[in-house]
Design goal:
Blueprint: E1 4-7, E2 10-13, E3 18-24, E4 33-39, E5 46-51, E6 58-60, E7 68-73, E8 78-83, E9 92-99, E10 104-107, E11 111-116
Parallel strand pairs: 2-11
Antiparallel strand pairs: 1-3, 3-8, 4-5, 4-9, 5-6, 7-8, 9-10, 9-11
């Protein structure tokens, strides 16, 4: 069982930056693939980024490549999402999730990111 708690969301102007954090409970954090997803009003939840267990491999949806960076600190049971050059279309609730065995089994409660133009 893993419990995930996101933080770091807020209101920022276009072109600004935010850093999201996701703190995980439990001793098995380092065995989970971790990811960030987002859901904008009226839209389905979409994949944003993921990071492998060791942190060596990262993946991004095309719309955030070059602007967002996912990272993890297994000693702190935390995964991060550094978001730069934010755009109004990045406005959404951002969720972190944990995956083991190919299924995103655990989800946080989400943190709101609002980018004003």
């Amino acid at each position: 069982q893993v419990q995930l708690v996101e933080s770091g969301g807020g209101l920022v102007q276009a072109g600004g930056s935010l850093r999201l954090s996701c703190a995980a409970s439990g001793r098995t954090f380092s065995s989970y693939l971790m990811g960030w997803f987002r859901q904008a009003p009226g839209k389905e939840r979409e994949f944003v980024a993921s990071i492998s267990v060791s942190g060596t491999n990262t993946y991004y949806t095309d719309s955030v490549k070059g602007r967002f960076t996912i990272s993890r600190d297994n000693a702190k049971n935390t995964v991060y999402l550094q978001m730069n050059s934010l755009k109004p279309e990045d406005t959404a609730i951002y969720y972190c999730a944990a995956n083991r065995g190919g299924t995103w089994s655990y989800w946080g409660q989400g943190t709101q990111v609002t980018v004003s133009s």
